[in-house]
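User: I'm writing a short report section on ligand binding and want a predicted complex to refer to. Could you take this sequence and iron/sulfur cluster and write out the structure as tokens? A short remark afterwards would be nice.
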Amino acid sequence: MKVRINYAICNSCGLCREVCPEWAITQKYLEPRHLYEVHAEKCTGCGECLEYCPAPGAFIQYDGQLS
Ligand code: SF4
Ligand code: SF4
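Assistant: Sure. The structure tokens for the complex follow:
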């Protein structure tokens, strides 16, 4: 399952970007709070980010289809 970020919960700590082995998570520099985003084409669904994210529910898992 790939992941995407729920911005209502994410606190922009950046830990997920640090731990992602695929470098699939980057900063959205134009966002005022430096929110992060997951690049779906790079995400392998390994789940590493889910292990480290301190904000429960900040990641949403989905089947890989961008609806
Ligand atoms: S599931 Fe794995 S590859 Fe996808 S964003 Fe999280 S750490 Fe990166
Ligand atoms: S680790 Fe969780 S709270 Fe921190 S930036 Fe990533 S999604 Fe947001």
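A remark for your report: Helices lie at 15-19, 48-52. The chain has one domain: 2-62.
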